[in-house]
Amino acid sequence: MSNLYHNDIYNFEKPVNSYWESTIDTKNKYKTLDQDMNANVVVIGGGYTGLSCALSLAKKYNEDVILLEAGHIGWGSSGRNAGFCCIPPAKMSVKKMFNKYGKDETKKFFQNTIEGSKFTKNTIKEYNIDCDLTGDSNYEVAPHPNYFDEIKKAAETYKKEFGIETKVFFERRI
Fold first, then answer.
1. How is residue 162 annotated by DSSP?
2. How far is CA 60 from CA 55, 64, 65, in A?
3. Burial of 13 (0-12, 13-18, 19+ CB in 10 A)
4. Is the distance from CB of 167 to CB of 139 less than 8 angstroms?
5. For the chain, what is the radius of gyration of the CA atoms?
């Protein structure tokens, strides 16, 4: 039987290769489920979404919540990148989104992403979460000169259509 995720997620003796786990002491902070438990709600998955869901249910609705994670808390994209706090929120170009879903739906999609980013920043502030939150702007880096014009056009579209300020950089490798 093969695992659903990379084997590193199940290696509890050493931290996985993630920034979060390499900068915080997680040893002995989490209990192992080794007995029957009761709760109103069980949230499965300890990434951004699962943690946020469990916190919201406990705080806003006073629910008795148990959070279960088979691997490491924050493993995967939650511990490796900005996850949902990045623009664009999809690989599909804005132009393709406009053509496929229309301007109104595409704008709702981007607005939802912006609201999600604000929600995350507010949660970090409210709970005084020790993390390296950086920037208050959208950054685009052209990995090759061929991408530079395309990225500049995308930045103009973000500003015009969504009100998103974007700083464009070209990575010059020596």
1. I
2. 8, 11, 12
3. exposed
4. yes
5. 20
- The C-alpha atoms of residue 117 and residue 105 are separated, in whole angstroms, by 19
Q: Give domain limits for the chain.
A: 1-81
Contact call for residues 146 and 174 (beta carbons, < 8 A): no
- Retrieve residue 72's tokens: 């490491």
* Whole-prediction pTM: 0.69
Strands 41-44, 138-142: pairing is unpaired
Check: CB of residue 84 under 8 Å from CB of residue 135. Answer: no
**For residue range 71-112, what is the model confidence (pLDDT) as tens digits?**
777 766 665 554 557 777 788 889 999 999 999 999 999 998
Instruction: Tell me the C-alpha distance between 50 and 1, whole Å.
Output: 26
List CB contacts of 104: < 8 A, sequence separation 6 or more: none
Token pair in block for residue 136: 């208050």
Name residue 166's beta-bridge partners: 138
Cis amide prior to 89 (ω within 30 degrees): no
> Across-strand partners of 140?
168
